[in-house]
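Entry:
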Amino acid sequence: MLNQRDFYFVRHGETDWNLEHRAQGQTDIPLNSKGRMQASTIPEKIRDVGIKLVCTSPLQRAMETANIVAENLGVPVQVIDELKEACWGGFEGTVKGKWYTDWMGGHTEKGAEAYGQFIDRATRGLNLALANDGPVLIVAHGEVYWAVEHATKIQNGGDAANCGVMYHEPPCSNHPSWRIKRL
């Protein structure tokens, strides 16, 4: 279950492995020049919403995105280890294929993190971020966004785009379920 707080979520900027459709997992891949440019566009999208803190995965692609945003907004960054991408063991660096759908279905290769354990860990990380005074911006990974979808029952309709900003509003008397707005 996710803390009932509104928040913003951004998937890190583009990396070379994104371009090659390679599974990054916890392999620490940096942003490419396009990814840095994407990250530099985020502050203008959220400048007026009052972000107080940027919470991020410790992986360098997310950290670099978070630092670009936080520096532009003049807010601190908090690293939350639980926001790391899933660990896919020996499949990291390969193109996603049958192994990936098998993993989502519950088949875990040696050295990889089980899908259910990953969702539980990522949800803990989201809740750690949401325990802070907000509004909070969470910078993490595409599969971490699955934990958001799982906990909120939001159907995003696809992967979180690199540096796409999504605002999440919890249920209230005006609407009984979570709502998402893309900025």
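The chain is about 35% helix and 15% strand.
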